[in-house]
From TrEMBL, chain A:
Transmembrane regions listed in the UniProt entry: none
Protein name: L-lactate dehydrogenase complex protein LldE
GO cellular component, as recorded: cytosol
PANTHER family named in the record: LACTATE UTILIZATION PROTEIN A, UNCHARACTERIZED PROTEIN YKGE
Source organism per UniProt: Alicyclobacillus tolerans
Location of the Cysteine-rich domain: 3-84, 132-216
UniProtKB/TrEMBL annotation, chain B:
Domain 4Fe-4S ferredoxin-type: 305-327
Family matches, as SUPFAM superfamilies: alpha-helical ferredoxin, NagB/RpiA/CoA transferase-like
Keywords: 4Fe-4S, Electron transport, Iron, Iron-sulfur, Metal-binding, Repeat, Transport
Pfam families: Fer4_8, LUD_dom, LutB_C
GO terms for biological process, alphabetical: lactate metabolic process
NCBIfam families: LutB/LldF family L-lactate oxidation iron-sulfur protein
Molecular function (Gene Ontology), one example: metal ion binding
Protein name listed in UniProt: L-lactate dehydrogenase complex protein LldF
Species the sequence originates in: Alicyclobacillus tolerans
């Protein structure tokens, strides 16, 4: 299967290792991985702040970037949620672009959902001998509808001990520009989230959205905690390397 | 009355900043909201089919509001048929005038009230007190708030931000002696004090959870039974209701009787559901001999026919969206500066009359969607918060520096070439600020972030720069 990556601007510029891990996993599952290079950002920062005109221009460049792609996979439930739910709405006044937006929405998948629902992965051949807790990001779970796909993948990893995160469904306080605009509340929220992470006792926190993980990780780092924060793709890739006896790093 | 928590000149960001520093307030609010949301979860899980009930609730409310003119007309006709005086108020001043003139026509001096958010919305207590009328709140939470000279900070639990110790102190100031902080003791004092008020008041004011169009009944949900006293003991009963509070039939009420208490407090059933159809008839043993219903618009009818915001009128005021909202849980209700706090408040307040002053409330949300998930009638509050922001930007009232920032964003992110260049520039720009791969500097827009968390340094190579080495494996 030909799979085009929508890597997201955040993974592209700040967390490229997430993209590398995702590419390697998809390749090892037999996908031909492509990277349409004119992609940028899903437009969510502008859209969520009420700047729909600006979000539209960015969405147009995204629709163009993926015009030729059959299937698009992304490491962010939030960005995929934006494309699936809001792109068609953004172009409700233009039948031509609405059609294109719908088509992109129907071809775009979040990484864990793609692995479970489309590739129907049942054994990953990974080993990860650590205690892990999982934070379900709000947009991924509430907007996009990610349910237990990440958990089902984590359960395929040998020796991984999954620990429940208390109040897992609570928002970490990221919310894009909210973290800067309402920084005090956002700071209080991430403080509560990290205290739940520490309370879980897990040595690794895993998630499916780098925005939230950058937020939680940034707070953990400030608190001097050594809990490792990883995207699901990184954990799975590292786990496969470990199972093969290769050091992933 | 000057309210202790009147800070309306500040922005929601400033009020939030102050509120977050109040550990005491945050702990009190988090403690109670956690209890409420955990109980709600347990009760809805054991009840089963919750999503089906929510859909039913949404259908009923959507149908009612889509046909509000017809149902409201039917409701008013039935009210009048059973001898109720109906007053329609376009805004709060018309509503307060209507109430005041009823009271003055009776030459009444004392009013007892049960809990009503509409009465808060129109600031009725201040108006009546300014006209020399004594108002006594009889809902325990409202009574506490009245003694503290504050406003409610939650639509269901008005005194959610008060601790037992604070309540005891307030009661001691009101004449109690040797009170403990036990619930039993505190409620006993309130009950004793309020009993004589019920008997001496000439007017009772209640809210209205639902008005039933087919019967002309006013339905109230309470836990303390005080509303029954308020509507039955004084000779005149005034009902204050928002114009959207209608249900077509008693069969619809059955659905709401499941949705409301389960969502609000995690109670399987409400303690008292009182249904009142008209004033006392000659054969009745008790009841008010005169009954008035004041129906308030105050900006609600503007939402009818508005594709984006009509659904705000579906709200049944259960407060579930407040209990799950992380922003509400960390800053409490007063920081919203509006009568209606939390996600529903952030959506509703700017839409009501004089709503412009609340135009920054829609930004008090991380858009996590917990409110929508909790709402028993499935109001898409998180989408409405974004639509409010769009409206503000489209009207040209957005923050000018933000407008420039998003113009800049568009210029970079809609042009792949510029985007690539800007990653390189950001890396250059940030690198002097980084220490051991972390940025803690509070430079420019980073300050909000770095106050409580580290920012990662951009890596030497972006994904797209690494890509050529990956693609042929
Ligand atoms: S918006 Fe929904 S959850 Fe919030 S108070 Fe209204 S009915 Fe309840």
């Amino acid at each position: 299967m030909k799979v085009s990556l929508f890597i997201t601007c955040m993974v592209d510029s700040i967390f490229p290792q997430v993209g590398v891990s995702m590419t390697k996993i998809l390749q090892s599952l037999g996908c031909e991985v492509l990277f349409p290079s004119s992609q940028t950002c899903c437009g969510q920062p502008a859209f969520n702040s009420g700047y729909s005109k600006e979000a539209r221009s960015v969405a147009i460049s995204m629709i163009n970037a993926f015009q030729e792609s059959d299937v698009i996979v992304s490491p962010s439930g939030s960005c995929v949620g934006m494309i699936r739910h809001f792109y068609p709405e953004l172009f409700s006044d233009s039948p031509e672009w609405h059609e294109k937006a719908l088509s992109l929405a129907n071809r775009t998948y979040e990484f864990s959902q793609f692995l479970i629902q489309i590739l129907k992965v049942e054994t990953l051949g990974a080993r990860f001998p650590y205690t892990v807790t999982y934070h379900p990001s709000c947009h991924g779970s509430r907007l996009l509808g990610i349910e237990d796909e990440p958990i089902r993948l984590l359960k395929q990893v040998e020796e991984l001990q999954l620990i429940e995160l208390p109040y897992a469904q609570d928002c970490c306080g990221f919310g894009g520009t909210f973290a800067v605009k309402m920084s005090e509340i956002s700071g209080a929220m991430v403080e509560e989230k990290t205290s739940h992470v520490l309370e879980s006792g897990a040595s690794v926190l895993v998630g499916t959205d780098m925005g939230c993980l950058m937020n939680i990780g940034g707070r953990l780092s400030r608190k001097g905690s050594n809990v490792r924060v990883m995207h699901l793709a990184e954990l799975l890739y590292e786990g496969r390397q470990l199972a093969k006896g290769v050091d992933a790093q | 009355m000057k309210h202790a928590n009147s800070t309306s000149h500040l922005s929601v960001k400033e009020r939030a900043k102050n509120a977050v520093q109040d550990e005491f307030l945050r702990n009190a609010v988090r403690f109670t909201t956690d209890r409420l949301r955990n109980r709600k979860q347990a009760v809805t899980e054991s009840f089963g089919q919750w999503e089906v009930w929510r859909e039913r609730g949404e259908q009923i409310r959507a149908h009612t509001i889509a046909n509000l003119d017809a149902y409201l007309a039917q409701f008013i006709e039935r009210l009048e048929a059973v001898g109720v005086h109906v007053h329609f108020a376009v805004d709060s001043s018309e509503a307060t005038d209507a109430v005041l003139s009823i009271i003055q026509s009776k030459k009444a001096r004392k009013v007892v009230k049960s809990k009503s958010m509409v009465s808060e919305e129109i600031h009725i207590n201040q108006h009546l007190e300014a006209n020399g009328i004594t108002v006594v709140e009889t809902d325990l939470g409202e009574y506490i708030i009245q003694l503290a000279k504050e406003t409610p900070s939650h639509i269901i639990i008005p005194s959610i931000h008060k601790s037992r110790e604070q309540i005891r102190d307030l009661f001691e100031n009101a004449g109690a002696t040797q009170l403990t902080t036990e619930t039993r003791d505190l409620t006993a004092f309130a009950r004793r004090t309020l009993r004589s008020e019920f008997l001496s008041a000439e007017i009772g004011i209640t809210g209205c959870n639902f008005g039933i169009a087919e019967t002309g009944s006013v339905v109230l949900f309470t836990n303390e039974g005080n509303a029954d006293m308020v509507m039955n003991l004084p000779p005149t009963h005034i009902v204050l209701m928002g114009m959207e509070r209608i249900l077509p039939t008693l069969a619809d009420l059955e659905v709401m009787a499941h949705l409301l208490p389960k969502s609000a407090t995690g109670q399987n059933v409400i303690t008292y559901m009182s249904m009142l159809t008209g004033p006392k008839r000659s054969a009745d043993r008790d009841g008010a001999t005169e009954m008035h219903v004041v129906i308030l618009d105050n900006g609600r009818s503007r939402q009818l026919g508005d594709e984006q915001f009509q659904a705000v009128l579906h709200c049944i005021r259960c407060g579930a969206c407040l209990n799950v909202c992380p922003v509400y849980r960390h800053m409490g209700g007063h920081a919203y500066g509006s009568v209606y706090p939390g996600p529903i408040g952030a959506v509703l307040s700017p839409l009501l009359e004089k709503g412009e002053q609340y135009s920054d409330l829609p930004y008090a949300s991380s858009l996590c969607g917990a409110c929508f998930e909790a709402c028993p009638v499935r109001i898409p509050l998180h989408d409405m918060l974004v639509q409010h922001r769009q409206k503000l930007v489209a009207s040209g009232h957005g923050n000018p520096s933000e407008r420039m920032a998003f113009k800049g964003y568009e210029n970079i992110f809609a042009k792949p070439g510029r985007y690539r260049l800007s990653i390189k520039m950001a890396r250059k720009f940030l690198s002097p600020l980084a220490k051991e791969g972390k940025i803690r500097s509070s430079f420019g827009p980073l300050a909000g972030w770095t106050k409580s968390r580290d920012f990662p340094m951009l890596p030497k190579q972006s994904f797209r720069e690494i890509w050529p080495s990956l693609k042929r494996e």
